C-alpha cells in the first residue's frame, strides 16, 4: 500500500506541475527575471503549495504515525546554520541557471526534455557526493541523522 500511495501522490504532484507549467524552465526563468519580463505566476503556485504544506506539517507535528500507519519523520532541528544557508544558495544557483528544481526536472524528464536529463544526472551526482561526504563525516564524529520520532498519538 505505501508504494501505491507514494505513486499516486507523485502522479498528482507531477500533473500539478504540468498543468501549472512549472516543469517548463522558461516559466521558472521568467519568474526569476525580476528586471526583465517578470512572470509572477510561480509565486502564486508556490504560495498555494506553502499553504497546503503548512497545514500538513501542522497536523503531522501532533502525530507519531501517518494516516497510513508509517512512522512520522520530521526534522529535529529548526536551527538556521551555515550548512542550511549554503545548501539554499547552491539550490538557488542551480535553479536560476537551469530553470529546474528536482520535482519539475523529473516531470520534464518524463516528458522527454533533454535538458532535464542533464540536470537530473548532475543532481544525482551531487546527491551521491553529498551522501559520501556525510557518511565520512558521521563515521569520524559518530553522529546520528537529523531526524527524530515525534511524540504524541
How does this model look, in words?
This protein is mainly α. It has one domain. Helix content is about 65%, strand content about 5%. It has a two-stranded antiparallel ribbon with strand order 1-2. Helix 2 packs across helix 4 and helix 5 packs across helix 6.
Assembly of the depicted chains: single chain
Determine Rg (CA atoms, Å): 18 Å
Q: How many alpha or pi helices?
A: 6
| Arithmetic mean pLDDT | 86
Name the features.
153 residues; mainly alpha; two-stranded antiparallel ribbon; 6 helices; 2 strands; 65% helix; 3% strand; globular
Q: Secondary-structure blueprint of this entry?
A:
Elements: H1 2-19, H2 25-32, H3 41-60, E1 74-75, H4 82-98, H5 102-110, H6 114-141, E2 147-148
Antiparallel strand pairs: 1-2
Short description:
With 153 residues, the protein is mainly alpha-helical. It is 65% helix and 3% strand. It is globular.
